[in-house]
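step=encode ok
step=design start
structure_in=
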């Protein structure tokens, strides 16, 4: 291998090793600082509102920040309260109807057993009676083993549920602490945002900082774009479900449409968390028109979201629809549920690094000076 190729290979290895260390360092750093990262993201969304209060109402920065945080948390708490209230209301209605529905369902099962299953059981019993003792003992042993395995499985499931509840209860103090830390960091970062911007402005002339500023600007626009995209998607879901509720002649269609829009934010299940159990309940109670309608509505919402999400998310965060779709899928594979957010954000970060010519500088470093003598000149 020529000396030039050897130096290029060494520089390429240096770049790879550097990237690995940077990624590893950021992952370790995120493990210890993620509450402050979330607080920073919240601040990016809140700063425009604080600036408006400071500019239009002449409120002190600290008071404007406090008011803005209270407004945002009140809106979020109000939405959560509406969702929980509506769920409790509909669960109460279902509980009131449940005894009659259980009685009807029990009568249906009893009739099904008497008409369909009892003859089969009798035939099976007669068949067992005709078996020789050895075969009968073998069959009884198999049934006993199935019972033992089923009991063991139920025991494992019960212990798992108990362990999950215990983990949730033990995690509550940590969740409360994280909430307090995030809110406090959110307040301080938002309040002192102008000071941070002034510090950044003083660094603006330093070599390499403009590229960093370009990356951060792209990330900020992507964050706002992602929020706008999700609001657009749940608004479309709200409209579709509202129309469906009117067609199905459901009481309080606006409440159900609002619940469906909130559930649409849940990854994987989405509106299925609301519509599918409802459809199953309607089928059990004999409301076949409502059950089939809810299933069809669920399919329409899911198809619409899967078709529209790459286009809408991509257009709002500045990615091609195919790139947005790939980023969402890859994010899901790498990060699970959080991949719905992290995938597009990482894609935007890569695009921002490309626009800032970071990869260009890396490539120039790899193919640059081919000898130590040229490197020093």
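sequence_out=
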């Amino acid at each position: 291998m020529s000396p030039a190729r050897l130096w290029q290979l060494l520089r390429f290895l240096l770049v790879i090793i550097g990237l690995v260390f940077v990624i590893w360092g950021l992952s370790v750093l995120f493990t210890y600082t993620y509450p402050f990262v979330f607080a920073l993201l919240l601040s990016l969304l809140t700063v425009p509102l604080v600036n408006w209060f400071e500019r239009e109402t002449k409120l002190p920065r600290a008071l404007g920040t406090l008011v803005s945080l209270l407004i945002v948390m009140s809106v979020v708490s109000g939405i959560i309260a509406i969702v929980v209230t509506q769920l409790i209301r509909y669960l109460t209605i279902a509980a009131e109807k449940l005894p009659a529905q259980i009685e009807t369902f029990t009568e249906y099962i009893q009739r099904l057993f008497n008409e369909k299953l009892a003859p089969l059981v009798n035939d099976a019993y007669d068949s067992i009676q005709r078996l020789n003792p050895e075969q009968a003992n073998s069959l009884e042993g198999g049934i006993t083993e199935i019972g033992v395995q089923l009991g063991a499985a139920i025991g494992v499931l019960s212990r798992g549920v108990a362990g999950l509840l215990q983990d949730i209860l033990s995690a509550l103090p940590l969740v409360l602490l994280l909430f307090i830390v995030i809110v406090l960091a959110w307040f301080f970062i938002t309040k002192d945002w102008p000071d941070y911007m002034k510090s950044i402005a003083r660094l603006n002339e330093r070599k390499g900082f403009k590229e960093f500023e370009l990356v951060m600007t792209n990330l900020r626009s992507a964050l706002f774009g992602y929020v706008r995209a999700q609001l657009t998607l749940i608004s479309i879901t709200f409209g579709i479900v509202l129309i469906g509720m009117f067609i199905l002649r459901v009481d309080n269609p606006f409440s159900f449409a609002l619940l469906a829009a909130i559930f649409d934010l849940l990854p994987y299940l989405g509106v299925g968390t609301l519509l599918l159990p409802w459809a199953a309940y309607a089928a059990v109670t004999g409301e076949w028109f409502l059950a089939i309608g809810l299933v069809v509505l669920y399919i329409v919402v899911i198809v619409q979201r899967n078709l529209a999400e790459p286009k809408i998310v991509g257009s709002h965060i500045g990615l091609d629809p195919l790139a947005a779709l790939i980023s969402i899928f890859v994010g899901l594979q790498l990060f699970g549920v959080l991949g719905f957010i992290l995938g597009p954000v990482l894609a935007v970060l890569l695009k921002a690094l490309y626009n800032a010519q970071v990869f260009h500088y890396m490539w120039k470093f790899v193919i640059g000076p081919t000898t130590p003598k040229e490197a020093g000149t």
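step=design ok
step=annotate ok -> The CA atoms of residues 331 and 343 lie 4 Å apart.
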